[in-house]
Design brief:
- By secondary structure, the chain is of the alpha/beta class.
- The chain has 3 domains: about 45 residues, Orthogonal Bundle (434 Repressor (Amino-terminal Domain)); about 130 residues, 3-Layer(aba) Sandwich (Rossmann fold), CATH 3.40.50; about 130 residues, 3-Layer(aba) Sandwich (Rossmann fold).
- The protein has 12 helices and 12 strands.
- A 6-stranded parallel beta sheet has the order 2-1-3-4-5-11, sandwiched between helices. Strands 7-6-8-9-10-12 form a 6-stranded mixed beta sheet, sandwiched between helices.
- Helix 5 links the parallel strand 1 and strand 2.
- Helix 8 runs parallel beside helix 9.
- The longest helix is centred in the middle third of the chain and has 17 residues.
- The radius of gyration is 25 Å and the shape is elongated.
- The termini are far apart.
């Protein structure tokens, strides 16, 4: 015969505190002395007590679970998305929240709404933001607390963190100009469905184009799927149609890895023939190419942390001031140099 699970009352008796104090220690809703916390946690461990969160919800307490709508399928998340997730999960843990991941191409909002109405989640981190995003309107209509990683076109009464695309574009182009480059190819994301109109894709491409016009730099935009195999195809197109190109600036983290690693197969030397700057690769990918990439990496982990802090603040009615736009810093490595003085052979 199996023994019954321990109860909150048993934990309270063992720790010599009230049942409400046990709850406060476990859910972090009130400040409790470290000495009392230690007694309660020791009793929890000895009794192997597992809180009944379902009962807590029935009693009217808010859920300690936050949903995060991630792009794509879990097996195909890009490295920056994983960094956002890592940052958000750290803040959740610090504040005694749990993180529930939705990873679906369809992003089923009816499921999200049902979870919120049922008290199973208390808020949402929303990613892969479209310029006109119906998901945002649904969350606003249902009065579900949320924070965006990304931006819609209209931002009234919406909290968000996002990349400073204009700042990153200027930083990257200025570095290439400093080295002497005047003919640049920009690799942008040609998603499977252009109907998505992801804000990050549009803003970064637009800001690079505008800045190159201002600086009178010749810029050619080449769109590709964001996958390593596309890197070889981009190089072939440059070699066949844009031989005057001396530098590449890329918004596609996977494409640029494939490009650098396959260049030698086409007789192209990085950086002697083509300099390469990556704008979207997290620093965790620095060892994935030879030579190592010059990068302006998005501070994705920090952005995920700030987004989660802002959301928890909204859920608990303790709003905080946050930094909304994050540029990233230029780190020069082995993929950039002064331009060659001839066309690609």
């Amino acid at each position: 015969m199996t023994s019954r699970p321990a109860t909150r009352a048993q934990v309270a008796r063992m720790a010599k505190v009230s049942e409400s104090t046990v709850s406060y220690v476990l859910n972090g809703q009130r400040s409790i002395s470290e000495k009392t916390k230690a007694r309660v946690m020791a009793a929890v461990e000895e009794l192997q007590y597992v809180p009944n969160y379902g009962a807590g919800l029935l009693a009217g307490r808010k859920s300690k679970t936050i949903g995060m709508l991630m792009p794509g399928k879990m097996g195909t998340l890009n490295p920056s998305s994983i960094e956002y997730l890592n940052g958000a999960s750290i803040v959740c843990s610090e504040n005694n929240y749990h993180l529930l991941i939705w990873s679906s191409e369809k992003m089923l909002m009816d499921e999200v709404v049902q979870f919120y109405r049922s008290g199973l989640i208390s808020g949402i981190i929303l990613m892969e933001i479209r310029l006109q995003d119906e998901r945002v309107e649904i969350l606003k209509k249902q009065k579900i607390p949320f924070v965006m990683i990304g931006r819609t076109e209209k931002l009234k009464d919406i909290e968000y963190v996002d990349r400073d695309f204009e700042g990153a574009a200027k930083l990257g182009i200025d570095e290439l100009i400093r080295l002497g480059h005047q003919n640049i190819v920009m690799i942008s994301n040609n998603r499977v469905s252009d109907k998505l109109k992801i804000g990050a894709d549009i803003r970064l491409s637009r800001d690079i184009l505008n800045y190159c016009k201002l600086k009178r730099i010749r810029l050619t935009e080449l769109k590709s799927l964001n996958e390593p195999e596309a890197g070889m195809q981009v190089l072939k197109e440059i070699k066949e149609k844009h031989r005057e190109t001396t530098a590449i600036i890329s918004n596609n983290d996977q494409t640029v890895i494939g490009l650098v690693n396959s260049a030698s197969q086409l007789g192209i030397s990085i950086p002697n023939d083509l300099s390469v700057i990556a704008l979207s690769n997290p620093v965790t990918q620095v060892e994935m190419t030879n030579p190592k990439l010059t990068m302006i990496s998005p501070p994705s982990k920090e952005m995920g942390q700030v987004a989660m802090r802002a959301l928890i603040g909204a859920i608990e009615n303790k709003p905080i001031e946050i930094t909304r736009l994050w540029r990233g810093e230029l780190v020069v490595r082995g993929s950039t140099s002064r331009p060659r003085n001839r066309k690609l052979l």
